[in-house]
Amino acid sequence: MKMAGFYDESISNGLGWRAVLFVSGCPHHCPGCHNKEAQDFNYGTEFNKQEIIKRIEENSILKGITISGGEPLCKENVTEVVEFIKDVKKVRPNFNVWCYTGYTIEELMDRTDEATKNALEEIDVLVDGKFKEEQKDPRLKFKGSKNQRIIDVKMSRNIHKITELAI
Ligand code: SF4
What homologous superfamily does CATH list for 2-159? Predict the structure, then answer.
């Protein structure tokens, strides 16, 4: 997997201070994509997991990690993304995990592969759905268009109902 970028700390990609990994490659090709170059699976640099984990481990300000892209949960990236989240949690067990995806949670729940199932177990908050230019609203917090949802994945699973975070 290649990565399009990494922020050691950010407060604009989820609640609280977070590290942010942007993976390369996205099959959705949304018109108006905010990160068009990251649609290419060969864009960016080789993902050096150990180096990124070391940087996270050394940064005590962080409360969580956000995985963005590109598309973290496409079939090309999902396995490596899940392994990365699990390895991050070995050094930061209390980390809160956000993930941006162009898929809806319903589409992800319909998948039968182990990697996607594991992803939905490891991710706390999923910002789901493609970016839709006609529903773009710069006032939205942590998302680009009105169709996207900021979903509390664990709560949704517990009460068997898609539940959005109140932000
Ligand atoms: S899902 Fe995100 S990265 Fe992929 S094309 Fe749409 S806006 Fe761009």
Answer: Aldolase class I (3.20.20.70)
